[in-house]
Model the fold of this input.
Amino acid sequence: MCGVNCALAPCFLSGRCRGCRSEDPRQKRTSKWKCRIRRCVLERQLNHCGECPEFPCPTRGSLDKRYRGRYRIDLAENIRRLTALGPEEWGRQVQADYTCPSCGGCIDPYRRTCSACGRPMD
Ligand code: SF4
Ligand SMILES: [Zn+2]
Done:
């Protein structure tokens, strides 16, 4: 919804979260219930912020800034790519970007290292 790819998130991979689309109340990670971006996208009945005429809006500001500063991830650019490519192709490209060239494992986008072999992301 916001440009984060849930499928790469450690909390999703560990089963603590089922992704922002899930309404399952049994999932352990609860922060998404308070997310203003998620709520806004759902209230507007959109798939993601790229479908919104107000994008990029102030509601996204602090998340965009935090991801750029802390993780070097540009969520607004992710949204632009998602909008241009469509969800299937975007998902394929992101998966490829975060596949470890050494072992084929999943690169943790937050630690910027391979979760399987520990290789740092290029
Ligand atoms: S761009 Fe802003 S206003 Fe539009 S759906 Fe996303 S959070 Fe809501
Ligand atoms: Zn690896």
Remarks:
- Residues 100, 102-103, 105, 114, 116-117, 119 surround zinc ion (ligand 2) (CB under 6 Å).
- The chain is about 35% helix and 5% strand.
- The helical segments are 10-13, 36-43, 61-71, 75-85, 87-97.
- The chain has one domain: 6-13+31-114.
